[in-house]
């Protein structure tokens, strides 16, 4: 008995048929917002970018400190071995 002869056949057939996904195709979305909302969104975006740059700078400082401490530990270990 085929799916078309059953009551749920069309729904089941739609679920079971291999349909290629359109995931690779970008979706264009147009948003019409008032200018004051766009200005607020731009301001929020600028604040977010500034915060992101601050976080990146803080991470770089921490990474530099970690590398310095690692180098110091290696030097101390070398001195202990030489002793």
Throw out a few tags for this protein.
83 residues, mainly alpha, 2 helices
Task: Tally the beta strands.
Answer: 0
| Span of the ends, CA to CA | 87 Å
Specify the overall morphology.
Answer: elongated
| Oligomeric state as shown | single chain
Largest sheet: none
Low-pLDDT runs: none
Would you tell me the structural class of the helices and strands? mainly alpha
Share of helix, binned:
55-70%
Radius of gyration, in Å, reads 30 Å
pLDDT averaged over residues: 78
> Number of domains in the coordinates?
1
User: DSSP strand (E) fraction?
Assistant: under 5%
Give me the strand/helix succession: HH
Counting DSSP H or I runs of 4 or more residues, the number of helices is 2
Protein architecture, described:
The protein has 83 residues and is mainly alpha-helical. It has one domain. Helix content is 67%, strand content 0%. The protein has 2 helices and no strands. The protein is elongated. The relative contact order is 0.05.
Q: Outline of this structure?
A:
By secondary structure, this protein is mainly alpha-helical. Helices cover about 65% and strands about 0% of the residues.
Draw up the topology in text.
Layout: H1 9-16, H2 35-82
